[in-house]
Amino acid sequence: MNDSKIKTYSIKTFGCQANIADSNTISGVLEALGLEEAEKIIGSNDDETFYNTAISTDVLIMNTCSVRQKSEDKVYGLGKMLKLAEKDARKKPFIVMAGCMVGSVTGERQRYAFEVLKKKTPWVDVYINPSQIMNIPEILLKNSLLSDWAVQKFDSAKVLSKQDNPTHAFVNISYGCDNFCTFCVVPYSRGKEVSRSENDILKEIRHFAGRGIKEITLCGQNVNSWGLSMTKKMEIRTGSDQKIPFTSLLKKIHNINEIEKIGFISSNPFDFTNDLVETLKLPKISRYLHIAVQSGNNTVLKNMNRRHTVEDFINLIDRIKGAKPNIELGTDIIVGFPGETREQFLDTVRLFEKINFNVAYISMYSPRKGTPAERFFKDDVPLKEKKWRHAYLTSVWKKYKNGI
Ligand code: SF4
Q1: Which CATH class, in words, describes the domain spanning 168-400?
Q2: Where is the Radical SAM core domain (predicted)?
Q3: Using a 6 Å cutoff on CB, does residue 95 contact ligand 1?
């Protein structure tokens, strides 16, 4: 029985699969404490649904993303709506801000001062960064929202993330990133790369398998380097013959009878070993592979601090297609990175004409506060040119994606 002051929760998730997986873990924590997910109260649009649901729940988690300014601006906008709820004297939930906006201003690698975020979000009650999810019970207790009894019987080791899909689950295998691509906030917002133990991962997957889950997607900012020490992962290069722990993890999951399909996101070309290429041949490994290339020009890649060249990438894709001929490829691209000339951009176009990506997330570069690209490079590609490059590359991608 839940004898605490709070009975219901709601989570608003922004951003990538890592955030979705974290939100599932937060749901697992809150449900282990006896809370129930609040029913969605549908409005005429998404914002109205968010607002209606938020004001009828006890605890609202805003699991934020920092990758794009647009995503942060959305959080500020929804926060303003929540302030209206206070003015209306209607019920304002206890608001916990989680995710990368908090990670960016706390921990060892801060991008800017915590005070700046606090000033912009006066409607937030408590902030937790992505490594503090298991502290939620204590935080709620400190704010007199939970009973001692509920917290005492909480056992973080027994928390299982909640999965809405009855046949598919996302499983985080690592957190954070040590690669420091110059445009990216993740090494700051999610901190150092930390791998979960093999034991914990397999235990969670076996539990899901027992509940009817047939498909698993392993998540991490850079899954290839799972289980590697910092020195080792920096040594590994595209096409290296070294064995990596990630392939052994994939094989162990492959041996779980009930699991029929295994995918993983994200992979980077710079540490995609031959061992991993071979492992793709296993029948349960998904034929969709997401592998971020970011640019088709070597100078731009260097400025992005990517540890691969365009030639490495093309060669890798050839070997992947050799190992798994029916592979479907997805990638991430940034257009208009500082200093990218029209000719350098056209190298990316040529790469798209060559590779035929099935999925492409194409973004226009926007400087993110505190990143090396923002600090050391001038955002010198005009917005109009960025928009043109975005539209042009999108049209090329559409034309070539089915191997035309
Ligand atoms: S590999 Fe690069 S782009 Fe990916 S999360 Fe790490 S720093 Fe960001």
Answers
A1: alpha beta
A2: 163-404
A3: no
